[in-house]
Amino acid sequence: MAVTTRSASTVWTGDLASGSGETTFETSGIGTFPVTWRARTEAAEGKTSPEELIAAAHASCFSMALSNILKQAGHVADKLETSAAVDFDTSDGAKISAIRLTLKATIPGLEDAEFQKLALSAKEGCPVSAALAAVPSITLDASLT
């Protein structure tokens, strides 16, 4: 079995409310991005958050999973446009309360019923979906264009 490891790190200074940090994508080297509690719970103001990073991971993983499932079913997508919205709820503690995946797909020769079945299979089989299984609600809105 092959294992691939990817890494990132965060350096934080100060307390939660007034402190700040920087998250670095170490494996890819694509950059270092600022994070703050305010950016996480209020306005992003050019900073990222764990939830935005989760959204990026989920959207890309789902798209990869679906492209593989489509190929196994004899289809190739012209385009898969996936977005993920992650809700961070601080009303009773702090938790991720919901994730909404939205997919707009262009796949020649695929009927909607089969498309919906394959898209749901990708949502359920995506490794990031599995890692996020504790999230109370993960939904998928998939449409063919």
UniProtKB/TrEMBL annotation:
Tell me which domain of life the UniProt entry assigns to the organism this sequence originates from: Bacteria
Database matches in InterPro entries: KH_dom-like_a/b, OsmC/Ohr_fam, OsmC/Ohrsf, OsmC_Ohr_Peroxiredoxin, Peroxiredoxin_OsmC
A Pfam family it matches:
OsmC
Annotated Gene3D superfamilies = 3.30.300.20
This chain belongs to the protein called OsmC family peroxiredoxin
